[in-house]
Amino acid sequence: MVYWHLFRKSFAINMQYRLSHLINNAASAIFGFVYIAIWTGVLTGKEQKSPYSILDMTYYMGASQCILWMTVFLTAGLGIQLGVRNGAISIELARPVSYYFYVVSQEGGRIAYNALFRSLPIGLIFSLTVGFYVPSHWTTLVYSLLSLLLAIGISLNIFYLIGISSCWTTEISWSWAHFIILTLMFSLGGQMVPLTFLPEFLSQLAKWLPFAGVVYYPVLIFLEKADHSVLILQTGWLLVLLFANHGITAAARQKVEIQGG
Amino acid sequence: MKLYIKLVSASIRSRMQYKMNFVFSMVSYGIVMMIDFLMLAAILNRFNEVKGWNLYEVGILYGISSVSLSLYRTVAPEIHEFEKYMIEGEFDSLLIRPVSPLVLLLSKNLDLSRIGGALQGMIIIALSLYHISHTHSITMLLIYLPVILVCGWIISFSLALVTATIAFWTQRIKDFQTFTLYAPFNAANYPMNIYPGWLKFIFFTVIPVAFINYVPMLFLLNKGGSIYYLLLPVLVALLFFYLASAFWNFGIRFYHSTGT
């Protein structure tokens, strides 16, 4: 199967850089320690005012630092914009495989690599220092895995959407779209501040947006602090984005212009 | 210096050929950084303070750290992107010119879109100062602020120069930058007294971001520092700049081309 082959090749390419990635993992852990320190400082003596204790927030930050490498730190635009810029996309779209799965399976290989060589070591660092949450029931692990897969699906599709939009926009404004989407994933995804702590109207709004499905819900399910019904919301957004990308890819086929040169 | 100004002004003129892009990227960079601060404001608005520092006091720390980093990113984008000179072997072309490679790198490009980040930082500082002025005298802080910002800029540039020098041995530095720039500057947005001892040790010694804002503010915001704390950022900036330049001059001897 060609997509499985692309998946494995992409995994193998990333293996070449595992040493520098391990250095980066230490930096990721430091980000986590900084956030844990902030929350400890903020909540000390005020835990009764908060729905989460200091220990909850420590686990939350540890889990969210791990999940970031599978759902937020994906390749900008899944690299689609590069093909648009140098014209390679015209050949890629003409191949007898689905362009969508061609792109997504390669990123999938990278995500699998990140899970093993980034998320896992980061999780280990937290386990050995500040502790890592262990769910009280085995079914939580099943729901967490499901939520994580949905989160990866939503994120892949958001990045694909940004990438394929470069067929219509110039590359320059495109790169800012990537920067903005990352910020939205961090802020409205609940990476540093769980959505409950945002001002009321923003908190209510953010809980319904796809960004919440990328970090916030998978972490809450793992920490056994969210109802399983949030999986329905995640599935809903995944389907919406899948349909949108399917339509836009079809439109991109019609749109392709060769830039010459 | 004359040559530097000439080269820089040529770089600015070339950037200004794309005015809309410049305005758009500057504004969006500022907005993106503002959202980051609003997240922090949301926490402190709810819980009032973090280990004795209220929202406006943290705002000053945050603003100084943002301005320092943004000014460095504006002035030295080629130092930030230095690994491309190693990977693509472009450093050769800088070595054969009759000017120091460091001056050439600094004059090659200015990333003016980063000024948006500096403006955002200045706005946060101004708003915070306005609120603090109701309870404290801020005259001393206002007078000393330019010195603090210049020192912060020098410290961030020196840290970046040390990181860039590592590329002479490792070629790639992107992963090191997360360690030496992004994580420490993110940490410097908040008061140092919230961190565990080992992190504090790092931020006061090897990666001295504590001196950019926290140390002088201990005195200026009446948090228990002495007036000598105002001298420390200047001394640390000068010492660190000297060490970074010496390290760069040492590292450059180990450069070997790509052979392409």
From TrEMBL, chain A:
Ranges that cross the membrane: 21-39, 59-80, 115-134, 140-162, 174-193, 205-223, 230-248
InterPro entries reported for this sequence: ABC-2_transporter-like (IPR010390)
A Pfam match: ABC2_membrane_6
Lineage top rank: taxon: Bacteria
UniProt keyword annotations, A-Z: Membrane, Transmembrane, Transmembrane helix
PANTHER family recorded: SLR1174 PROTEIN, SLR1174 PROTEIN-RELATED
Annotated protein name in UniProt: ABC-2 type transport system permease protein
Automatic annotation (TrEMBL), chain B:
Sections of the chain in a coiled coil: none
Domain of life: Bacteria
Keywords: Membrane, Transmembrane, Transmembrane helix
One Pfam match: ABC2_membrane_6
Transmembrane segments: 21-44, 112-130, 142-169, 201-221, 228-250
PANTHER family: INTEGRAL MEMBRANE TRANSPORT PROTEIN, SLR0610 PROTEIN-RELATED
Protein's name in the database: ABC-2 type transport system permease protein
